[in-house]
Design goal:
Two copies of one chain form a homodimer. Chain A is built from ten helices and five strands; from the N terminus they run E-H-E-H-H-H-H-E-H-E-H-H-H-E-H. Chain A is of the alpha/beta class and 204 residues long. The first copy, chain A, has a single domain, classed as 3-Layer(aba) Sandwich (Rossmann fold), CATH 3.40.50. A five-stranded parallel sheet of chain A has the order 2-3-1-4-5, with helices on both faces. In chain A, helix 1 packs across helix 10 and helix 2 packs across helix 5. The radius of gyration of chain A is 17 Å and the shape is globular. The interface between A and B is medium-sized, with 28 and 28 residues.
């Protein structure tokens, strides 16, 4: 059976870096942006539009932009289509090959494939620092603004998770390993982490 | 500086086994029962009495046994003495050598020494199974009774933790790594776990 590792993560905690490096270490595929591309292809929406919706709770857009009911309803349909396509694509990926999938509630969507589910988190200071390092996106933001961005994105991830499941996003009970990346250099932790994961799958 | 690893754990999750094996793997000291012995020696109470109190919230005894106020007050004094001595001994241990300390709020007591704090947990089924394996203590208990024992002991640990700190016991934010032992064989995970810990300390 394919080995599926899902990485859920707080924004700025380095979950994506962990996922990417782990996939390299384990010699398996890595899926993140590819899911967006797949959805865009299937639905005909732009990648940017899909990306905005793919980890957000439904109905978050209309209120934010104060659209009319007609647009609200059309957005709602688009969102539903995107989220349904996303689930389909994630299931297809897991059928196809061993892989690391970052975000998008893959831990819940793939429950029946018994993935290893990891949650990555960090203290606020570490998360702000990590965001700062992505200078292109965040160079003009103050610490306070980055903090607000972190809170907003995680709120959306939580909301999205709530559509898929009544399990709480980030509750350690729903993950096999929870990694606090505060103050650590991720690349130094990948080797033992990869071995831990391989042993975890071996137990079956 | 000494490397201090604290293991907090749900009852039945195998935290003690992880602690013991990790100490062997890392070639450092392991403290659990030794703390009880130390407290008993310093205070003059029996090891059994100390053991009953050392991870419980103060004032839990009187209500349980319905003692009179005089006995209540004396128990309260004993508990305070035991908990204060425990803190002193744990601090002495951490000053003396690198070690693994299981339970007793060592993560909070040793905060200033920057220990690596691990939380070990599991689903109920796994915890009941692990308790079953300790046949001597639990052989006459039904699953329901073991479940009640697990809930009661963890409640006491939480209460004890609340005396030491306003941080929540078991909240992943207060630990560097949270390990779900559901369905895994602990000894197979120790090697990568030990390496992860060594790398964690190296970052400083």
């Amino acid at each position: 059976m394919n080995k599926i590792i899902t990485i859920s993560r707080e924004f700025g905690s380095g979950g994506r870096e962990i996922g990417k490096r782990l996939a390299d270490q384990l010699g398996i595929a890595y899926y993140d942006r590819e899911i967006i591309t797949g959805i865009a292809k299937e639905t005909g929406f732009s990648e940017e539009y899909v990306s905005n919706i793919s980890e957000k709770g439904a109905y978050s857009y209309p209120f934010q932009f104060g659209k009319s009911f007609a647009i609200y309803s059309s957005l709602q349909n688009n969102q539903t289509e995107i989220l349904v396509t996303q689930q389909k694509i994630i299931k297809e990926i897991a059928q196809k090959e061993s892989c690391v999938i970052v975000g998008r509630g893959a831990n819940v969507i793939l429950k029946e494939q018994n993935p290893m589910n990891i949650f990555v988190y960090a203290d606020l200071e570490s998360k702000i620092n990590r965001c700062r390092q992505k200078a292109d996106e965040n160079e003009n933001l103050s610490d306070k603004e980055i903090e607000q961005k972190i809170i907003q994105i995680d709120k959306n991830r939580k909301k999205y998770h709530n559509i898929l499941s009544n399990l709480e996003w980030g509750d350690k009970r729903n993950y096999h390993l929870c990694i606090n990346t505060s103050g650590i250099e991720i690349k130094t932790m990948i080797l033992p982490l990869g071995e831990y994961i391989e042993n975890w799958f071996r137990r079956r």
